[in-house]
Write a structure and sequence with these properties.
Layout lengths: L2 H20 L11 H14 L1 H33 L1 H15 L3 H12 L3 H25 L3 H9 L4 H39 L4 H11 L2 H34 L1
Length: 247
């Protein structure tokens, strides 16, 4: 879809939303208007409240996600390559994958406390599972003829892994990073909502409990925009890697 169509549709929605609030078509006691949401965001940014909490959430997400990438990509590739390792770890991995974040949060908080470490752990757990699964799938989906061709030229395990398996699996791995990042964003907000002392999730919880709608919607939209931006960057990387493979 062309960018002008996307921009136009967003402008139309915002204009209709603002008009509906001004004409009392919608009850602004239970929602808000775009201008009121922007004003709330400007006020929070001016007071420093927004940046101090956003910085904490961003650091927790980045640290947790980087750790998930560092652990998840090599582990997933090894699980895809080595049958015994896959058979050993896959049941636990599947069990964690289908377990809701809220079920894991109390255990993580009990083990690590309510500080930033538990939020980083939540991001790590949620992101690493998806990254491992996709990295494993990428290795297993590699064309076996490529491996046999490399073996026929006397390639050792290291050469096969680095020069055949990894390049072939790279598009699937990057797709796993994109999906893992999405789960990581959800995890850090959920962790701050239910067990945080600082961060955007705690702000959302506080404004929700106080029924202060405009700041609540601003923070919710901010998290959505951040998640979309991270996903878009990784999606662009995924397309570039995939086109390189196709070439």
């Amino acid at each position: 879809m062309p960018a002008r169509w996307i921009t136009g549709s967003v402008v139309v929605v915002l204009a209709v939303w603002q008009a509906a609030g001004m004409l009392a078509v919608i009850d602004t006691s239970y929602t808000s208007t775009p201008l009121a949401i922007v004003e709330a965001g400007v006020e929070m940014a001016g007071s420093g409240e927004l940046w101090s909490n956003a910085q904490i959430t961003l650091i927790e997400f980045i640290v947790g996600f980087v750790l998930a990438v560092v652990v998840g990509v090599p582990l997933g590739m090894l699980m895809g390559w080595r049958l015994r390792l896959r058979q050993t770890l896959e049941p636990a991995l599947v069990a964690l994958y289908v377990t809701p974040s809220l079920a894991l949060l109390p255990l993580i908080v009990l083990a690590l406390g309510i500080g930033p470490v538990s939020k980083i752990a939540m991001v790590f757990v949620e992101a690493v599972i998806t990254i491992v699964v996709n990295s494993m799938a990428g290795i297993r989906e590699t064309d076996p003829r490529l491996v046999r061709a490399a073996r026929s030229f006397c390639a050792g395990d290291r050469d096969v892994f680095v020069k055949v398996l990894f390049p072939s699996a790279l598009p699937t791995i990057v797709a796993g990073l994109r999906l893992g990042a999405g789960r990581g964003v959800i995890a850090v907000i959920v962790a701050e909502l239910y067990g945080g002392t600082q961060g955007l999730g705690l702000q959302i919880s506080s404004y929700g409990q106080s029924f202060v709608i405009a700041p609540l919607l601003f923070l919710t939209l901010l998290v959505a925009v951040f998640g979309y931006a991270v996903s878009s960057v990784l999606r662009a990387t995924e397309r570039r890697v995939s086109s390189w493979k196709a070439a």
